[in-house]
């Protein structure tokens, strides 16, 4: 799929016709014009973000609940830019972090990830980094001054930098770091490079050459040893057992896979199970669901640019206690409510109802995506 380049002007259309007529030379000229258009847009976005943030004294960089590695890496890169612009910046999450990958990332890069709340009152503005769907408002305390995320999204905000040709949020931020003329610190370059690799699924979901260009820029400054450590994080015994349940209970239709892992000790184990299903040959979208603390939690993964994990879960469940994530990875929570109080002799019936209804809803949503 070619990246969107906006409305094409008459001169560009004329050049396109010339390209057809004269062959290679014309095609090269057309490519050069389109590349300049993208560069001009990137420069404008960079200037808008810089001017917005530089007008403040402090900024909260807020990643989604249980953020992706890509979102975390992008936040680290933005924090470096804020420091360059003389603005105090700190990274927060909308809610607790439970993913093993995210925890390993925070440990390696010494990121203290506090939950956003009243602690944001001390900041002049907030930047929403990564994620998908609606943008948190924080009751305007502080106001959200910018949204930085990859893949276009319908967001009602005056400054949305969504890089329609970027396969990862880290790609957008890496381009900004390069445009700022910065030589990134090793930990920043390493974080952003791994963020690009994670966001593009090791470059299997590249949307344009911009992902490769950003990675090439960062490669010179990054620590490959740290990236190798991140690619092979440790796995707890509980997570290992959950993945075993996921593999045994999987059901596949076309390129969609769904599994029920039953009761799970942590949401991160459920997410690992969804990631595992996505590695199966021929599977491009997957979902794993289970019960955690009287709530049916579903983790969805999409490895196909035509499918959005957020849209799948939004379509599958009319009412959720929480829905978060982005087009690649998303999580939904549906409280059991009164059903959580069933007696032990009715538990098996409840489990069967949860299994049948959730599988039906997910496969229906996948087929419509």
Automatic annotation (TrEMBL):
The keyword Transmembrane applies. Keywords: Membrane, Transmembrane, Transmembrane helix. It comes from Halobacterium hubeiense. The chain crosses the membrane at residues 12-34. This is DHH/RecJ family phosphoesterase. SUPFAM superfamilies: DHH phosphoesterases. Signal peptide: none annotated. PANTHER family: BIFUNCTIONAL OLIGORIBONUCLEASE AND PAP PHOSPHATASE NRNA.
